[in-house]
Amino acid sequence: MPTTKKDQWSTKLGFILSSAGAAIGLGAIWKFPYMTGMNGGGAFFLLFIAFTVIIGLPLLIAEFIIGRGAQKEAISAFKKLAPKSGWSIIGRWGVVGSFLLMSFYSVVGGWVLIYSILSIFGLVIKEGANYEQLFITVTGNPLITIAGLIGFLFINVIVISFGIKNGIEKSSKILMPLLFVFFIILVIRAVTFEGAVEGLQFFLQPDFSQLTAESVLYALGQSFFSLAVGFSVMVTYSSYLNKNVSLPMSAGSVSIMNIFVSLLAGLAIFPVVFSFGLEPAGGPGLLFMVLPEAFAQMPFGEIFLSLFLLLFLFAILTSSFSMLEIITSAFTENKNRSRKNVAAIAGIIIFFAGIPAALSSSSLADFKIFNLTVFDATDFLVSNILLPGGCLLIALFIGFKMDKTIMKQEFSYSNTLPTGMYQVWFQVMKWIVPITIIIVFLGSLGVI
Q1: Mean of the per-residue pLDDT values for the chain?
Q2: pTM reported for the whole predicted model
Q3: 216-264 pLDDT, tens per residue?
Q4: Structural domain total, the chain
């Protein structure tokens, strides 16, 4: 039974890879290593896995169910499933959250775009190069960061203009598997460095004494960020999906790929960090300092670095595509508006909103919000307040508002899981997910 939408995923694999692309991106490859490095290593990783499986996976299934059950984009989905009520605020929350997320996400995407260009021309890996200084130079130059921001958003607008099947799905089918292959190659090289064992111990050997209440909040936020749940992005994606796809199995596949890529990222980064005496709590620039160091030790390192950066850029783009898609679809569905025009206008607005974050390491370095730069403040607001808030609202919607018949039908289509799994999932969503989010959030504030 196909959906009534004109544009839809052509295959189950295309949907899973595109959803994985939306989930993986910066969350697993860029943010996960430095958040792990700043929050105790192995203990943070273990907590991240637990939150992903117990909280993130049920929420991903929930967003899939809402989207395919309504066959509408985020705002319209909640309006259809809960008419004449205020629940559509969840969809609006997602659109606003995606906009804010894009405003700093695109800055990092711009960094990767700039690094990709520099690497293609052989300007990254050099004998005696100081890669930490290179990162400071790139991010500290207003013209470079603004140019990267423009280029990154331009690519997003072009792809989203082509729609689901011809834009997002085709590219995901080709480039996501290549990213996995290159990551595995990088891991094999990283773990053979002298001193790599210390990095592996830091990443894989939990030390719970390093955890704080704030670290627990960060781990929860990281699980939401890396699975792209909380902003109804997956509601929009699943609204393009046919009924012959198992939503729990698809969500499980996406979650497993996300954990696997996070594992690969840690295995690739931390052995290099400790081998070369770098600081694991190196912050947002950690990846950009470590990757060149690792590839410089390989034959044809500059070529491999260029290919990896291009694939990494693609992974970031697949995530940003999902964010721009939720914004674009919110203003085009059931309206006589051009997808291309809406995507272009959204891109322009995001560009202006992203300028302060882009200048956080240069012109606006001294401008602070609660002692944080604009970039860091936006990241904290999105990852640790808006995403958990959106997830809490979705859990409450599933547990106390959405029609149970629709939920059970969507959960059960093409599903080979035991029949009792629906009730397990529902009880987790109704009680465990919201209670956990509230406890972790209050604990981070020192209330409990």
Answers
A1: 90
A2: 0.92
A3: 999 999 999 989 899 999 998 899 888 899 999 999 999 999 999 999 9
A4: 1
Closest Cα partner for 112 from 184, 195, 25, 49? 25
Task: Write the CATH number for 97.
Answer: 1.10.4160
| Cα-to-chain-centroid distance, residue 372 | 22
| Structural domain includes residue 124 | yes
Structural domain includes residue 1: no
113-135 pLDDT, tens per residue?
999 999 999 999 988 889 999 99
* CA dist 415 → 247, 409, 410 (Å): 8, 10, 9
Rounded distance between C-alpha atoms, residue 188 and residue 52, angstroms: 26
Contacts of 350 (CB under 8 A, 6+ apart): 99, 102, 103, 106, 153, 324
Q: Which residues contact 332 (CB under 8 A, 6 or more apart)?
A: 338, 339, 342
Q: Would residue 282 count as lying in a domain? A: yes
Nearest to 233 by CA among 376, 103, 123, 73: 73
Burial label, 72 (beta-carbon count in 10 A; 0-12, 13-18, 19+): buried
Count of positions (residues) in the chain: 448
CB neighbour burial string for 283-303, b if at least 16 within 10 angstroms, e if fewer: ebbbbbbbbbbbbbeeeebbe
Residue 6 lies in a domain: no
- Give dist(CA 121, CA 106) in Å, integer: 23
Whole domain around residue 203: which residue ranges? 12-444
